[in-house]
Write a structure and sequence with these properties.
It is built from 1 helix and 13 strands. The chain is 5% helix and 69% strand. A hairpin with a 2-residue loop joins β1 and β2. The protein has a single domain, classed as Porin (Beta Barrel). With 202 residues, the protein is mainly beta.
């Protein structure tokens, strides 16, 4: 991927910048001591800057895109700890950098097209608080505390959408976190995220 990006920068025919925003439907794949949990999704957002770079040296229609995003993820889990019903809402915020390679096919006069892309993303936890309610008592510990989540995340993602009038992008995507972000030795947590968004390219 790095070699392809280096070649792309050297051969780029067009480099464009834009802004993007999306609604996250985030969740966790969870396993604690061999028991799988199914948390509820948490609605969040992702927003930031976007770059697109044409890559005709691969084939007409191929391109690279990269983004720098603030992304709100997490999940909600209702469980029982001891004799108390417990609700935990994880609310982490990440800086995420996805880098995709994609293909775009434009129809007719070029005002409408479809595209698909895939590639890795890297995330760094910036801040966040959990909302924990147990036995009628509520607390808000730091999401990235010593017994919380690891700050670094890495995964892969897929995206598909439509391009319109040379400036607009509407898309859906899904990211699979590949790194276990749980600090607890008995637990395993991986980020999962579906999103729907739009971008404007200058």
């Amino acid at each position: 991927m790095c070699a392809l990006l280096a070649t792309a920068f050297a051969s780029a025919q067009e480099l464009r910048f834009g802004i993007t925003g999306a609604m996250n439907v985030a969740n966790y794949a969870m396993d604690v001591d061999g028991v799988s949990f199914n948390p509820d999704s948490r609605i969040g957002f992702r927003a930031g800057l976007r770059m697109e770079m044409e890559a005709p040296f691969i084939y007409d229609g191929f391109y690279f895109d990269g983004e720098v995003l603030l992304s709100a993820k997490g999940a909600k889990l209702d469980t029982t700890l001891g004799d108390s019903a417990t609700s935990i809402v994880a609310r982490p915020y990440y800086m995420e950098i996805p880098i995709h390679i994609g293909y775009r096919y434009m129809f007719g006069n070029g005002n409408f097209g479809i595209f698909g892309s895939f590639g890795p993303y890297m995330g760094v936890g910036l801040f966040g608080t959990n909302k924990v309610t147990a036995g009628g008592v509520q607390s808000k510990p730091d999401t990235f505390s010593s017994d919380g989540l690891k700050r670094f995340d890495f995964g892969v993602g897929l995206r598909a959408g439509v391009a319109m009038f040379n400036h607009y992008r509407i898309y859906v995507g899904y990211d699979w976190g590949l790194i276990d972000i749980a600090k607890s030795s008995g637990g395993k947590i991986n980020n999962r995220n579906f999103y729907v968004g739009a971008a404007y390219m200058f």
